[in-house]
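Sat 14:20. Reprocessing the chain from the morning session after the first attempt stalled halfway. Input below, unchanged.
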Amino acid sequence: MNSYKILMFTHLITVTPCLFVGAYLLLAQKGSKQHKLIGKIYMSLMFFTALVSLFIPAHVGSQFLNHFGWIHLFSLLTLYSVPTAIVAVKKGDIKGHKRKMIALYFGALIIAGGFTLAPGRYLHQVFFG
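Finished this time. Tokens:
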């Protein structure tokens, strides 16, 4: 298996649970021990998947530095949002934490995830042939 496929599958394996875990966290009671534990797992997965995605070259659309595409901006959003959301909650800024978590979920998972279904991308082929 080539390095592109290893990176792509690693990204898929780490980001897919985030769709479900993130939705749960957005809907569940906040502040409980369970929320905090699952939140740490979610944040770790999101940060790791964003790091991995930076090594995956863009194959659809224009490229910057012969590697990065527009979709990589969502990786940067994630790499910014995760630590700043952690800092916010540790400082007691619950509104800031909530705002960052909602932006992260919808920006990095829903919007970026939607782009992965575009023609020419792997998931488009998986779902639409």
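The chain is about 75% helix and 0% strand.
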